[in-house]
Amino acid sequence: MNIIEPRLLKGFRDYDPAEQSARQAMFATIQSVFERFGFSPLSTPTLEYREILMGKYGEDEKLIYSFKDNGDRDVAMRYDLTVPLARYVAQNQNMLTLPFKRYQIAPVWRADNPQKGRYREFYQCDVDAVGTDSVLADAEVIACLCQAISALGVSGYYVRINNRAMFNGLSVVAIRAIDKIDKIGLSGVVEEMKNNGILDDEIERATTLIKNVNQNIPEAVSTVMDYLQQFGIDRALTSDSDKAGKVVYEPSIARGLDYYTGTVFEIMLTDKSEYGSICSGGRYDNLVDQYSKTSVPAVGGSLGIDRLFSAMTEMGLIKTQGSAKVMVFNLEQSLQNDYVEVVSTLRNAGISAELYYAPAKIDKQFKYAETKNIQYGVIMGQTEKDSGKVQLKNLATREQKEVLLTDLVGRLQ
Amino acid sequence: MNIIEPRLLKGFRDYDPAEQSARQAMFATIQSVFERFGFSPLSTPTLEYREILMGKYGEDEKLIYSFKDNGDRDVAMRYDLTVPLARYVAQNQNMLTLPFKRYQIAPVWRADNPQKGRYREFYQCDVDAVGTDSVLADAEVIACLCQAISALGVSGYYVRINNRAMFNGLSVVAIRAIDKIDKIGLSGVVEEMKNNGILDDEIERATTLIKNVNQNIPEAVSTVMDYLQQFGIDRALTSDSDKAGKVVYEPSIARGLDYYTGTVFEIMLTDKSEYGSICSGGRYDNLVDQYSKTSVPAVGGSLGIDRLFSAMTEMGLIKTQGSAKVMVFNLEQSLQNDYVEVVSTLRNAGISAELYYAPAKIDKQFKYAETKNIQYGVIMGQTEKDSGKVQLKNLATREQKEVLLTDLVGRLQ
To answer: Are the C-beta atoms of A132 and B358 separated by less than 8 Å?
Structure first.
């Protein structure tokens, strides 16, 4: 038989049990913060009609995974969680009570060039408030995402904020160039605008806006910042050395997606700028309109968990967990039924427990338990069984005590 | 502007907040049972090289979503969680301690004909023990899945079990025909075998096996059933009227997937046979071999959560949950900052709370809170604010009490 080489696609990865346990704990933490803020979960499909997704993402549209399905339909894999939400709201607007506050934690796919902490498949954790033009909602979305990041144990982050309306009158091409300023600098932005045939006059207006030499905070931004203060997020200046947990006005923030209309923001790690933004979002008052005659204003944000996971791993903030708490050793073939009974008793009492599947050398079984970070071993041979007892071993300290089988659950709880 | 019709692809669906809350609670319950049995989580990507998936699923292979990606690679969407697991084990075998007990809860995609409770995107909840040929593992996988179903509040289910080795000597085509017996009956199976050119002699042997007129339980099946009894799952006969929670020997169970080699099983709902099996699995000792020179025996099973969710909805077993516990009413424009302070205080105390985003008629706000099943309202106008008090209203009973702002958290906890 030919052996097929086992390999992964570029930009995709497996998460082994240690990593995946930590990721799942992160998802659970984020979910509980989102729910505490009154957001409810929505699940939309991985595949959508391709036309639903096209024309929303600017030049990044080319990164969408799209193909013809078996029924010759043009389909596309979810590129973000915002556009499917807009489709959902338009499709179900007669049933929905607005404002509709939803969260969604799900993977998205982008055929981007893999970089540090950046994959072709990654999870987004989104909160959105649809059907409200209240600036309170803008502030609440940002506050909620900040709390989620804090709840993960990360304190070294700050928010950069601006308003897309500042760029009214500039072309989409100019805005997309501005969005790249962190990567290519102001001179790179100017060059990209020139290369795209933008006239000197527009370039001049764009650079003036970005530099905002007077550092006057536009009123639309200032209002959000005031509410953020009530949510516990203070203002800072770009020049401040300690911006952790604070919000900064940053006139060059544009966000690349075409659909933003008002507040735009991104969250950076204070000491890991190489990761770029780990969270971003803004107001998009005209997106639902693309699927509906009714206008529905909305605001939301998205936390990128995989990039954050990489950064947190570097920062030593990821704690890997063991698997089961207890392992029942398998020593004698004649006691298989007894071992099953012991392990079942533990599990029924809510204690996570493994049974080694077959009699094997005890050293091999110790090694297995150690590799899996199991805390306790239950050892029972014929002698123990006859006296209704087991040996309970702390696998870290190697301390061992004889306990009555009837006391085992109590001892472990 | 042209409006794009908001619509879903056939076989795909949105889960609204009420349904998705219930689904997420189901996932959490299942996850905790899997972990109690000592299984650890693994995450594999949605997309794999197409060649990894091909040749594993028999004639159902045509249901795989596959396409060429932007880099002209042949890729395919995950069809089940077992084949990627085998690929993972082969790829990482030098790092893994065997047996490797993992669970994965994730969506898979099949371009099948949508039917009752059957979608093109659906979640599977899998447990597998890789690297053991112990029959204990076969029994434990089945027991674990049964406990997960019980933990969801479903007691009306039973296990059907057989062993693929019973069909040794029969062709793959014959086995695939046998697998359809529930849908097309014995005469249908015979006809399909005939249509596929199977000779009378083989048909004769197949029908004898399926009917197993003597109802002798093969030893390989009997051993698993004995262990299952220790796990709390008793034997029953097909003819028994109450099979709930029990295991039945069923000589016609073949399971359609080509990779099974030993124990095969499926779990049915006692009163909802129209849903087919809600869970299935078996032993597949030669699957990892397709990616590796080392032979790695394995056994596992898969719980289909979407079909079960549909059935549970019909049975009235799905409890929908409310969103936030408390809503802070928004009455006066001048009190926006105070409302934010109140809602933040509640949230910081771990109480899920919403703030209505803008001053609006109180009736409208009541209606909103009611639609979202919110339990309590906090009502504060200028008068209350001046005296450091709020009105706390039970939104179901409409009972209302004036409480000190400083007592609010205590009252709600």
So the answer is: yes
Q: Where are the beta strands (DSSP E) in B195-273?
A: 235-236, 247-249, 263-269
* Rounded CA separation B340/A352 (Å): 42
Measured N-to-C along each axis, helices B17-36 and B135-151 cross at an angle, to the nearest 10 degrees, of 150
Q: Judge whether A42 and B17 are in contact, CB under 8 Å.
A: yes
- Where residue B255 falls among pLDDT bands split at 50, 70, 90? confident
Confidence of residue A354 (pLDDT cuts 50, 70, 90): very high
DSSP states of A8-58: --TT---B-HHHHHHHHHHHHHHHHHHHHTT-EE-B--SEEEHHHHTTSSG
Type of residue numbered A401: K
> A323 and B21: CB-CB below 8 Å?
no
Task: Confirm or reject contact between B114 and chain A (CB < 8 A).
Answer: no
Instruction: Give me the residues of B, 155-214, that contact A with CB < 8 A.
Output: none
pLDDT at A39: 97
The one-letter amino acid code at B397 reads T
- pTM of the predicted protein model: 0.94
Residue B71 confidence (pLDDT) above 90 = yes
Mutate to test the interface with B, among A44, A136, A412 (most CBs of B within 10 A): A136
Q: Taking CB atoms and an 8 Å cutoff, what residues of chain A touch B357?
A: 99, 129, 132, 134, 136-137, 140
Average pLDDT, chain B: 93
Strands A298-304 and A277-283: what pairing? antiparallel
Nearest to B291 among A6, A137, A372 (CB): A6
**Residue range B141-160: average pLDDT?**
97
CB count, 10 Å around CB of B2?
6
Q: What number is the average pLDDT over the span B361-389?
A: 95
Question: In this complex, do B14 and A292 lie within 8 Å of one another by their Cβ atoms?
Answer: no
Give the best-scoring range by mean pLDDT among A104-118, A174-188, A207-221, B293-307. B293-307
Q: For strands A353-355 and A326-328, give the pairing.
A: parallel
A46 and B351 within 8 Å at the Cβ level: the answer is no
C-alpha A284/C-alpha A255 separation (Å) is 12
Give pLDDT, residue B172: 86
Question: What is the distance between the alpha carbons of residues B106 and B126, in angstroms, rounded to a whole number?
Answer: 9
Q: Which tens digits make up the pLDDT trace of A140-190?
A: 999 999 999 999 999 999 999 999 999 888 888 898 888 888 889 999 999
Of A23, A52, A65, the CB nearest to B69: A65
Residue A67, SS3? strand
Handedness of CA B33, B39, B45, B48 (dihedral sign): negative
Query: How far A281 CA lies from chain B's nearest CA (Å)?
Result: 19
* Whole-number CA gyration radius for chain B: 27
- CA dist A131 and B84 (Å) reads 41
A69-103 burial code (b ≥16 CB/10 A, e <16): beeeeebbbbbbbbbbbbbbbbbebeebebbbbbb
A43, B15: Cβ pair inside 8 Å? Answer: yes
Task: Considering only the beta carbons, identify the residue of B68, B75, B354 that sits closest to A38.
Answer: B354
Distance CA B407, CA B404 (A): 5
Asked whether residue A213 carries a pLDDT value surpassing 90, the answer given is: no
Nearest Cβ partner of A97 from B107, B289, B371?
B371
User: Strand ranges (DSSP E) for A284-331?
Assistant: 298-304, 326-328
